[in-house]
Request: fold
Amino acid sequence: MVVARKTTLPVVRKQFAFNVDERLYLKIVEQARQLDMSPTRYAQSLFEAAYAARHGNTGDPILETVVGAALVLWGLKFDVPTIARNLNLTEPQVELLISRWRAVDRRDRKAA
Reply:
């Protein structure tokens, strides 16, 4: 039996640096601590989820699938804790996805 080997290209990482309000920073630090994550990694995951919710096409099919599933479940009237639990996300991540989706929807309705 011949097994094809999946070749992957190296991932090139780039960095953003920006400031946030101290209250937001402290909330992110606390939420990251609860998840046993670094604040930077948690902020990165929030950014990536928000980007996927807003634009899709992130290059990360798993992220796009999870974001899409969260939005579908929300559209079917599942509550935030249920979505988070079933998709292995945090409630703040689900809330962020939903809030970005609502913002895009409002923008698109105004443009129509």
Residues 91-111 form the longest helix (21 residues). The chain has a mean pLDDT of 80. The radius of gyration is 17 Å. The chain has five helices and no strands.
